[in-house]
Write a structure and sequence with these properties.
mainly alpha
Length: 83
């Protein structure tokens, strides 16, 4: 009985880690599509507020672009030139 419980627990941990890794490696667009697909189930399970927060975070990532550009233009170009 203990061995069955241990195997089940290890399987749940591995499945959770695989889901988390796949989520982190997805593009924000694919994350949003996945979230839209899972939203009805999350609402039925009482996780609707979490889905709303996650959607807001993903939408913010989409609006920001790839975030490769620095918002501090002086730090990127160096000191401002004086004439």
């Amino acid at each position: 009985m203990e061995l069955l419980l241990q195997d089940t627990l290890v399987g749940l941990i591995v499945a959770g880690c695989a889901f988390f890794s796949a989520w982190r490696l997805m593009s924000p667009t694919l994350r949003l599509r996945t979230l839209n697909f899972m939203a009805p189930l999350m609402t039925k399970l009482g996780l609707g507020a979490g889905a709303v927060r996650l959607r807001a975070k993903i939408t913010g990532q989409l609006a920001a672009g790839c975030s490769a550009c620095s918002h501090n233009k002086i730090a990127v170009r160096g000191r401002p030139r004086t004439r």
